[in-house]
Amino acid sequence: MTPASSDGETTSAATSTPRVIVAVGAVIMRHRWRRTRAVRYVIAPVLWAAGPVVAYLVTREVADDFVTLSPTGARIVYQFLPAGLAVWPLVFLVGLLRTRLDYARVGALLPQLAGPVAPGRVRDALAATLHDPRLELLYWSPITDGYVDLDGHPREPVASSGRTVAPIGGEGGPLAVMLVDEIVLQEPALLQAAGAMARLALENERLQAEVRSQLVELRSTTARLVEAGQDARQRIERDLHDGAQQRLLALSMTLGQARARAGDGAADPRLRGFLDHAAADLQQAITELRELARGIHPMLLTQEGPGVRADGAGRAGAAAGRDQRTIPTLPRHRRVHHVLLRLRGGDQRRPARRRVGRARPGHRHGDEMTVRVRDDGVGGANPTTTGGSGLPGMRDRAVALGGRMTVTSPTGGGTAIVARLPCG
Amino acid sequence: MRVILAEDSVLLREGLARLLGDADIEVTHAVGDADALLAAVDTQPPDVVVTDIRMPPTFTDEGLTAALTIRARHPNVAVLVLSQYLEAAYAERLLRHSATGAGYLLKDRVNDVTTLCDAIIRVARGESVTDPEVIRTLVARPRLDNPLDRLTHREREVLALMAQGWSNQGIGDRLFLSAKTVEGHVGSIMTRLRIADSREENRRVLAVIRYLRS
Q: Binning pLDDT at 50, 70 and 90, where does residue A401 land?
């Protein structure tokens, strides 16, 4: 073997070996990006561990021929780098462990997503679990009959290069879709587990939203009913006022004149008796009709606002001083006023049973107004049964306005009513 | 005596005009809404305005508002407000600033020519008139802490009449007491209810009403 030929062979070997190594490395890298995450996790550490080995081989090949290593360099190359080979199985294990940890992380999502979830939280959780920061979550919207993004803008879920569409379906139809790195398709179990978690959270969210919207709907329906009833009452009161009441008053006036003409009854005592009788009956009719009309819709309510307070046998009078100062900015909303007036008036039909006590002026805290009415009557009022107390009606009105009313009425211990009404 | 009448119900308006005419009270205008009332009063101020409270267009308290406007513009014109309902609030609004020559009567009183005409004459004289029924309900109001409990029966009777606007003499005539005795009762009432005494009758009415409503 001549030195020249020996040189040539050595050179050939020295140049071909790195080429092979680079080629192998390139193939591995390509595979690395194309392989599934599981493979990547398991293989990647192995590949990283292979780095020193490759470096060792290259160094040895090249150094032998072209470089004279210093004793220290040679020691590193010949003694320490092969030790990297020993780490290899270890990093393989680490890779496997990371895969298992992903599943464990899905389980850990459960408590996070079980309660009310802030918008975007589900997406973030999914992105973290599936290791895809670019993950997008599109929600199904029954209103637009399509998918919308977090901001509510309609979006068509379309798979693009490297991205895939993974639906998350609930029992009641589609819930959402994920736009996610298609690599997750290689791990159906992880995708499924994460999807199940997301479904739980989204379903929960949807049910909550449904209940909320039903509540809103119910409240507005109740409010509309109360309002309609109120309008009807006002109309009836108005009809009575313009019709029957005026006619009876006119009749009473004419009768009054007739009585005046009849004098003291000296001419015809029986005629005078008839007229007096008719006048008394008529006055009774007028009084009853007035009480009826007033019960249907207290006129004062429309004009005076919430400052009205109960007096006499439940009659309302304008507020003086204190009341007006206390409630200066309450919007003149007559539905609120009606509740207030009813509350303050107490049960007007049974003054003997319920003496209206201190109807304290409303106190306003923020957007809520509190009215308290207390009496020293017999107690035992039941706000849930209809029995002429008017309490259920008051409570319905309060609830229809988005407020609430509580009644405390121990037998023999008087009755206390507290109503809280929104007035923002 | 010249009167302007405001009442939106044609039936009542014509009936009232006829009734007052029979009682020798001249009705110069009979109108159906507050604007017409104000215009009529501005054109030809009467001695007394008799007005309904509820009138077009909103059928709430146009008449009362017009009455207050008239009191401000024409201090010499007395007003008598007729109310369908028994609302002390109306009475107080009307009498709050000045009770001189102002009155508040239930519409029911149209059946009694004497009471109605008497009220018109009294307000024309500058007195104040409050419907006895308003006073009755105020006095009868059940309350946990009723200041009227401090009064004797007789004092309550005096208070009720006083609140209707009667003078000591008038009260005395009705209760068959001397004016001097009534004066003693009034002083006692004022003391027991802790109301500053005042000779002026309408101020007494106001004081009483305000006190009862407080």
A: confident
What pLDDT is attached to residue B203? 62
What's chain A's length in residues? 424
ipTM of the complex: 0.75
Task: Name the amino acid, one letter, at B172.
Answer: G
**Is residue B24 predicted with pLDDT exceeding 80?**
yes
- Total-model pTM: 0.55
**Which of B93, B142, B212 has its CB closest to that of A355?**
B142
Distance CA B40, CA B5 (A): 10
pLDDT in tens, B149-176: 778 888 888 888 887 878 888 899 999 9
Exposure letters A276-305 (e unless 16+ CB within 10 A, then b): eeebeebbeebeebbeebbebbbbbbbbbb
Answer positive or negative: Cα dihedral of A258, A264, A269, A275.
positive
- How far does the CA of residue A200 sit from the closest CA of chain B (Å)? 57
- What string of DSSP letters covers A137-172? EEEEETTTTEEE-TTS-B------TTEEEEEEEETT
- Dist. CA B19–CA B50, nearest whole Å: 13
> In this structure, are residues B71 and B100 in contact, taking their beta carbons and an 8 Å threshold?
no
Distance CA A113, CA A69 (A): 60
Helix A246-262 crosses helix B113-124 at what angle (to 10 degrees)?
Answer: 100
Residue B210: pLDDT above 70?
no
Cis peptide before A116 (omega within 30 of 0): no
pLDDT (average), residues B94-123: 86
Interface contact A304, partner B, CB < 8 A = yes
Total residue length of chain B: 214
Residue A30 has pLDDT above 70, yes or no: no
Is the pLDDT assigned to residue A32 strictly greater than 60?
no
DSSP B143-202: -SS-GGGGS-HHHHHHHHHHHTT--HHHHHHHHT--HHHHHHHHHHHHHHTT----S-HH
pLDDT score recorded for residue A336: 53
Residue A303: its chain B contacts at CB < 8 A?
60-61
Distance from CA of B180 to the nearest CA of A (A): 31
Pairwise CA distance, residues A252 & A267, whole Å: 22
A31 pLDDT higher than 70 = no
Contact B108 A300 (CB under 8 A): no
Q: Is the pLDDT assigned to residue A391 strictly greater than 90?
A: no
What is the CA angle A311-A312-A313, rounded to 5? 115
Query: Looking at residue B52, what is its pLDDT?
Result: 94
Tell the residue number behind the tokens 């190594």, with chain if given: A21
User: What's the rounded Cα separation, in Å, for the pair A252 and A254?
Assistant: 5
**Domains of chain B with CATH codes:** 2-130 (3.40.50.2300), 135-213 (1.10.10.10)
